[in-house]
User: Fold this.
Amino acid sequence: MRSLQVLILAAVVCATAPATTLQHLTLKDMALRSTEIVRGHVQLGRTERCGPMICTHYLVLVEDRWKGSGGAVVDMSVQGGVLNGLREVWEGTPELKDGQDYVLFLWHSSLGTNLILGLSQGLFAVDAHSGEAMQTAATAHVADRPSVGAGPDAVRMNLAQMRKYVQRVIAEGR
Assistant:
């Protein structure tokens, strides 16, 4: 009888636990779904409460805009961060490095916030020496793969070729 109660309790907990299924996005998917694609230099902005969770805002000093019509600076945020000594971490959400250059595939949420597309799938670190962009996605469980991250499936591409490819995909619109 006790084991049946434990089994029922476990089923209720699993059924009511919050969960998100993340779809794997290709570079083409990200190019088409993004509202803004920029290459820029990231600066840490501020960390604040966003409803019940902590959000970290970053300023992106735009060096090159591949999609969208915003200004020279983009304000974007990610879930999690450190606020008043409390650290909040969300699976699949990246920690951007202050001062690093990135290519960011962003989407504008209904709340007016710019977010990285696909949690962290739309984040590519730029290596100035090699001229390459490397997908820096944090490990996350996705619907059609066990995990996505900066592993063997991560996109690594010459920056000029990536820009050309993305612009072609956007122009074709499919």
Q: What stands out?
A: The longest strand covers residues 36-50.
